[in-house]
Amino acid sequence: MKRIERVNDFVVRFANVNGSGSASANNLFAKAIFRLGVPVSPKNIFPSNIQGLPTWYEVRVSEQGYLARRGGFDFVVAVNGQTLLRDYRELSPGGYFLYDSTRELNEEFDRSDVIPIPIPLTDLCNTAFENPKLRQLLKNIIYVGSLAYLIHLDFAVLTDAVNQQYRKNPKLAEPNIKALEIGFAYARDHHPDTCKLRVEKTDRIGDKILMNGNSAFALGAIYAGATVVGWYPITPSTSVVEAFEKYTTMFRVEADSGRRKAAILQAEDELAALGIVIGASWNGARAFTSTSGPGISLMSEFFGLAYFAEIPAVVLDVQRTGPSTGMPTRTQQSDLLSCAYASHGDTKHVLLFPCNPRECFDFAADAFDLAERLQTPVIVMSDLDLGMNDHISPPLHWDDNRTYDRGKVLSAEDLESRQEQWGRYLDVDGDGICYRTYPGTHPTKGSYFTRGTSHNEYSGYTEESPIYQAGMERLLLKWQTARHLVPAPRIKIRDGKSRLGTIFFGSTTQAAYEAIGDLALQGLWINSLRLRAFPLNDEVADFINRHETIFVIEQNRDGQLRTLLINEGDFPPEKLLKVLSFDGLPITAACIAAKIGALLQEKPQQSKDGGTA
Amino acid sequence: MSTDRPIFRHPQATKNSAGFSRKDYEGAISTLCAGCGHDSATNAIIQACFELAILPHRVVKMSGIGCSSKTPAYFLGRSHGFNSVHGRMPSIATGANMANRDLLYVGISGDGDTASIGMGQFAHALRRNLNLTYICMNNGCYGLTKGQDSATADRGSAGKKGVPNPYSAIDLCELAIELGASYVARGFSGDKQQLVPLIKGAFSHSGLAFIDVISPCVTFNNTSTSTKSYEYVREHIDSTNTFDFIPLQQEILAHYPEGTSQDVLMHDGSVLHLHKAESSKDVTSRRRAVDSLEEEKAKGRLLTGLLYVNQDIMETHDIINSTLRPLNTLKEADLCPGNAALKKIMEGLR
Fold first, then answer.
1. Among A194, B147, B186, B304, which is least packed by CB within 10 angstroms?
2. Nearest-CA residue of chain B relative to A358?
């Protein structure tokens, strides 16, 4: 039998029971690889459950820097009895099966093409540690120690990480290091020369960081000056507000009073969460909410109000698998259309598509500027994979010269010196954006009545058709202004003569670039456009027009980005081909490359709706 | 469509201490039906603002959807207003209040807006004790959609269509007391003498002041079979108390026999001076307040007046310990930690 033999290029899967404290042990492992300068991409594949159900943690190690989920696994740490057989069967041929040999495997575990690595984790743990609570946690640390030996992971990196984690409480570091040593020693004594996977120190990380998108967005909101948050708990967005709250403790507590320069309110539902944001933004504070698909559905009513009454609102949608409650702990990019056109009547909303934590941070800050400049909702479209998993990312950076763009707001002095009559919905400079005032600004000037009913240029109620229609058309003019303000796409022309292009966005990015690289090795050169915002900038049309065929890669069933492109750009549907993945797991390069390959085989007899899924 | 009033002001019109005449607190001309109770409630709000010499531009008026929610257009024309969506006034008011705690927030809602579609938001604004005067103009029916029963309509009461309401009524005042409101009153749009001081008390209250104003719908629910008609309410009204609202600067002049009056000191230093019909009705007791409402209801009477007040419950900003400065006045220097701090965080992520 041939053992899988690779250096800095493999996938380890940890199969655990949810709620057993495995996450911190598995993180420790991923962090150690990161600190060895080797690109690493951990994916937590967890259940909608607090305790008891199976959970997996997949760590891809890739010196080449491929950070998408790869699919398949070469090494499994199988410590969940419920999934033991499944983890065993799904292991790649030639792979390694580390399991808790305190209980013997039954006869079903009969593969001859995998390498069993029995380690009596429970026995080792119970012998070494008394405290029953600690036992459960340290059992996980023991397998990390064993793994370190097996793949030649520099042990000092692990102990350093543990010491750093418990630097404020060194007493806790002690048992953790002991557990690591126990695991390491057992593997050394019983399984020498067993595993042909190796981690070797390199320098492929540079100044990059390992961070999740939700924390990055929260920091961006802090830096952008957000002060009011209305929110409702929902996976996978909850950790955004938790992080924001943590950062307000760090940065927003007044030294003299101990009071906080922020108001965070857990609302009764998502309707109220967005209502709080709209009320606060209307009154001149920067406010945001974070949610997921089910919350977007509930917020639709308020999106329409904010669009029509022209009130800034920043919303982060950490998308998960729909429809309905769907798979709450799995990822997807399936809220695109419901966000782009949220609410009844003619509405359109600005969307931003970050692809890594750095962009989650940058786009958080940009979202506040755009929302206030355009006086409209801006929705940042993250997803569970980007938001909750750790990603290698360029470090976050804030330009200290940057000031907040608060948009067109009249001060008391502006109102005092103004000659012409002010109208809240009067477009005086032709960009579709009008001047607004905050309540309490001036004793006699600048007050107005905000309403979701149709209004004239002076915010009075109207049922006059031409006035209503002119207002709706002005909103379209504002939409045109938005096209020039939102972040431009990132275009890569690999071959100027290639007639093939791809368009993708957000967390699909890493897998898409990897697939494009793989296809290039086969001689197929595909240009790419990474979309970063809606409305569509001019570059999108140029890119689509210069190619014969465009593969639109996204993580949903219906090709929502493709629909958006056809609807907004009038592009011929037959040239936009769907490349889709919607199983709830982060998309892989293999999936993309296979589907593009299949579509090229089918051509030119492609189906009318743009090909296959 | 609302129409602006003529801007002419009588030169000798009385002015309050802020230099405003009563007209300065008015809004556009009402488009509600002639005789609508809501117009009387609107007038009481105007009167309360005038008497308290409130600066109009320091008031924010908000509402949901319905006849009642149209009224913010008819008072305080110099204030910012926000007519939001159905049942969602409390969340908009919450956000606005979080952004600037220094303004006076007046929320107008109706019985459909509050007791049905907006019940959740109503309940949660109460339990957070948002610093807001919440006035519900309660007519027991949906006026704008032509008279359907609302959730506050009494069982057996019949409006214009003549069909008795088969469901039990939600008593918003009892609910408010139970949900943690710190100021709960019931008024009648036909009794301005009582309503104006109730509103003035609400304005000086720190926290959520809820006033349920029984405000008959003359078009759809003013029939002889309705329990929300002018006639019925007048015949069945009972009052916990009559009272004076005494602003901070004024001295209490009236004196009443011991045992029949109760003073409540408000946060801003004003005093509510209550003349009680019965000495047992202590408005600072939550249990007594609910008991009184139930006792009167059992007798077929409608209890009005100040029902409950508690000055010890913290308002939202103090519960969450937010800064005393209005959040909407904070600038980059107050809010942005700068790149050096970010670099430190980055070190921890390597």
1. A194
2. B346
pLDDT of residue A539: 97
Contact call for B84 and A305, based on CB within 8 A: yes
What digits encode the pLDDT tens for the residues B115-126? 999 999 999 999
Chain A, chain B: beta-carbon pairs less than 8 Å apart: 232
Provide the shortest C-alpha distance from residue A372 to chain B (in Å).
Answer: 13
Which ipTM was obtained for this model? Answer: 0.95
| Closest chain B residue by Cα to residue A205 | B350
Please check whether residue A437 is in contact with residue A410, taking contact to mean a CB–CB distance below 8 angstroms.
Answer: yes
In a domain, B3, yes or no: no
Q: Å from B82 to nearest chain A CA?
A: 5
Out of A46-55, A111-120, A337-346, A440-449, least confident range = A46-55
DSSP code of residue B103: S
Say if B54 is an interface residue toward chain A (CB within 8 Å). no
Distance CA B199, CA B189 (A): 12
Helix (H, G, I), strand (E, B) or coil at B122: helix
Q: Tell me, what amino acid is at A553?
A: I
Domain residues for the domain of B246 are 22-329
| Cross-chain residue pair A449–B58, CB shorter than 8 Å | no
Rounded Cα–Cα distance for residues B164 and A38 (Å)? 76
pLDDT of residue B258: 54
Assign domain A6-198 to a CATH class: alpha beta
Global pTM value: 0.95
The mean pLDDT value of chain B amounts to 90
In chain A the first and final C-alpha atoms are separated, in Å, by 36
* B14 inside domain: no
Q: In this complex, do A272 and B320 lie within 8 Å of one another by their Cβ atoms? A: no
A501: tokens are 């292009």
How buried is residue B339: exposed, middle or buried, by Cβ count under 10 Å (0-12/13-18/19+)? middle
CB of A52 within 8 Å of a chain B CB? The answer is: no
CB contact under 8 A, B90 and A272: yes
pLDDT in tens, A22-55: 988 999 999 999 999 999 999 999 998 888 899 9
Ordered by start, the domain boundaries in chain A are 6-198, 211-393, 412-485, 490-602
H/E segment holding residue A176: helix A170-190
Query: CATH number, domain at B156?
Result: 3.40.50.970
Where in A92-157 does DSSP place strands (E)?
Answer: 96-100, 115-119
Residue B276: per-residue pLDDT: 61
pLDDT digits (tens, 9 = 90+) for B175-226: 999 998 999 999 999 999 899 999 999 999 999 999 999 999 999 999 999 9
Averaged pLDDT for residues A208-214: 98
Judged by CB atoms closer than 8 Å, whether chains meet at B322 and A262 is answered as yes
Listed by number, the residues of chain A in 378-397 with a beta carbon closer than 8 Å to a beta carbon of chain B are: 395-397
Domain-located, residue B13: no
Assign B146 to helix, strand or coil.
coil
Rg (CA), chain A: 27
CB-CB: which of A267, A438, A461 is closest to B328?
A: A438
Q: Output the six-digit token pair for A226.
A: 């957000």
Note the CATH number of domain A490-602. 3.40.50.920
Distance in Å from the first CA to the final CA of chain B: 62
* Fold (topology level) of A211-393: Rossmann fold (3.40.50)
Res B318 pLDDT > 90: yes
Both tokens assigned to A51: 């305790």
Contact yes or no for A227 and B82 at CB 8 A = no
Burial class (CB in 10 A: 0-12, 13-18, 19+), B22: middle
Residue A219 C-alpha, separation from nearest chain B C-alpha, in angstroms: 9
Q: What is the mean pLDDT of residues A187-196?
A: 98
Contacts of A350 (CB under 8 A, 6+ apart): A370, A371, A374, A376, A377, A378, A379, A482, A486, A533, A534, A535
